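in:
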């Protein structure tokens, strides 16, 4: 059995990290409605996100550089409702298989981008974005 087909609680740190499909969607800013608590996605990327590769440009130090950067863990996974429906962590937590385009299945790390499941090509950096409310998108992540 491939490690990505195993229950999440059995994965070691390297396997956990390898589960990420590299879409970059969790590196996009979200806007929360103060009245309803609803969370809306934006097309605004964290300043550390390389928008060409959809990868963090300083993953190892990201939490020191961006204190509110999410560190996804087994214990907080269930409470993060805004994770993309295609997120490998979310899928595996729900007992679902990885999609065919996931690099662990396809062997091709570019498949996530080619199939349109990444942030490549449609985001703006937080450095130039301005008000997040002006960047709310209507597409589901």
């Amino acid at each position: 059995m491939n490690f990505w087909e195993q229950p999440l609680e059995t994965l070691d740190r390297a396997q956990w990290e390898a589960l990420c499909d590299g879409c970059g969607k969790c590196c996009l800013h979200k806007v929360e409605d103060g009245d309803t608590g609803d969370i809306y996605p934006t097309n605004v990327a964290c300043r550390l996100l390389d928008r060409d590769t959809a990868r963090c440009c300083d993953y190892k130090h990201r939490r020191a550089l961006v204190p509110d950067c999410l560190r996804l863990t087994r214990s907080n996974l269930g409470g993060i409702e805004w994770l993309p429906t295609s997120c490998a962590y979310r899928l595996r937590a729900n007992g679902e298989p990885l999609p065919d385009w996931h690099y662990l299945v396809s062997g091709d790390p570019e498949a996530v981008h080619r199939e349109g499941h990444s942030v490549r090509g449609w985001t703006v950096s937080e450095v130039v974005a301005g008000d997040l409310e002006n960047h709310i998108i209507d597409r589901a992540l």
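note: The chain is about 20% helix and 15% strand.
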